[in-house]
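Before a colleague's protein record goes any further, I have to sign it off. Alongside the sequence sits a line of tokens, each denoting a local backbone shape. I want your independent view on whether this chain really folds as the tokens say. Where you disagree with what is written, explain briefly why. This is what I was given:
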Amino acid sequence: MSDTSKKDLEVTEKKALEATAGEPTREGLVYEPHVDIIEDAEAITLYADMPGVRKSDVDIDVREGILTLNAPVRPTSDGWQPLLKEYEIGGFTRRFSLSEKIDAERINARMDNGVLVLKLPKMEQHKPRKIQIG
């Protein structure tokens, strides 16, 4: 197996976030969700993995050019005693700087099986266009 294919198959662990100055205090563990970002002529689409998050608990905020995702994960049952515990329960948070190409007023979101899908439409003047020869 080549070094490249080995790297493609490596599992990455969830990365817990450390609190920084000026950041609000949160109860419990907070993780940075893994994302895939795809760009086409019309928009940028962001896929954020947030297992265990309820659609109603996701908070998406755009302020001063910063897109912020926050989502708590609630335990499935109170007082449970696991026999084996490999999965730490914690919420998710992630921030992205938006470019001037993005039309922040038209951003839309949906949740699909633990994956948050954000469609970030481009401003009309930043979309490619064909010029016809007259």
